[in-house]
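[User] I wish I could look at a protein chain and see how it folds. I have put the entry right below:
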Amino acid sequence: MTVLLILLALFVLLLAGVPVAFALGGLGLGMLILGGFSPLMAPQAILSTLDGFILLSVPLFLLMSNVLLKGGVGHDLYGAVQAWVGHWPGGLAVATVISCGLFAAISGSSVATAATIGTVAIPEMLRRGYEKRFVYGLLAAGGTLGILIPPSIPMIVYGFVTEESVSALFLAGIGPGVLLLFFFAGYAMTYAAIKGMGRSQKADWPTRARATFRALPSLALAVLVVAGIYSGAFTPTEAAAIGFAAAVVITAVILRTLTWRSFCEAAKEAMATTAAILLIVAGAKVFGKAITLYRIPQDISGFITEAVSNPIAFVVLIALILIVMGLVLEALSMVLIMTPVLLPAALGLGFDPIWFGIFMVLMVEAALITPPVGLNLYVIQSVSRASLGDVAMGAVPFLLLMLLGAALLYLIPDLALFIPFKL
């Protein structure tokens, strides 16, 4: 009964328009006071949360992402990929998916990926005769690769909450991320071939060479970040700092597309996003402290373990819970709230915590394209000036592909665990 009342209060606050951070923090503080606990636990929880070295990577990755966004790197990546695969059946759609994957590997941001590639790809694809809903859905889903292909801010937060290796999480996300990339590209080629949608002319070799040369520094940045983490040369936080510095050099010195004004805009946007993320983290920490003192995670974990002893049924139940939570919560809040509740039950059934983290991020990724709070739907709606209904309907096939990817991740755990632990 207590759990239902707490969830009801949280949903009422969110539906009333209270910002997520203040809804979580305020509800947590109220629970501490009503439970007879010292309210001083709230500021103590906040200070202990924000005093984390790993969280330094969040503003640095956001700075890197925004610098690349303002420097027009998305245009260069899209142009290079289009020059190589644009003449295939559904070539522009494939180029869009690959560009999303590449930009995800150097930004770590779903919103930045969807906005950057969407700005370039949507008008080009519509001009070539692609159906509107298909284009919108492709970009909304392609943008979600930003939180699965490393670097990934939700993975950083999951690692911070669970004290698991962020480097291992980053490496575990590569396999499922590439799998989804192939799923999206395969569906795009099949759909385009069936519908007879247009393709580009085959680019000549000089055009390919010029486009590839211009995109090469950005590709090198992606390799630097991932290879550095994989080799142990630097931690995720150090990788974020190096990536930010390299992004400035690439856009300001090599490509000369970053102005001082655009750099300041990138810094301001990164600052605002960082403040929002840290406020959510702080609010979720207070809420998490309160529900822990009420023993709610232990009770829910015990109930799930007793009611669901079959691993398949457990995974299906967790997927349904996360999809439902995704209807009212955004990605980061889902990770912060649900991880302490669901992870103990998952560990009790023998699931690897790194695997479970990737599974959670994959389901959070699906929530990014489910209304009414699917953030990527709003990003693409803003970029394309389309109706939310068209964007949401176009995303449905890609949502089903994500669920297929989650099923394969359960059947073949090494999709996530092979690279960090067996390669």
User: Anything to note?
Assistant: The chain has one domain: 2-421. The chain has 21 helices and no strands. Residues 106 and 221 are 7 Å apart (CA to CA). Residues 2-421 form one domain.
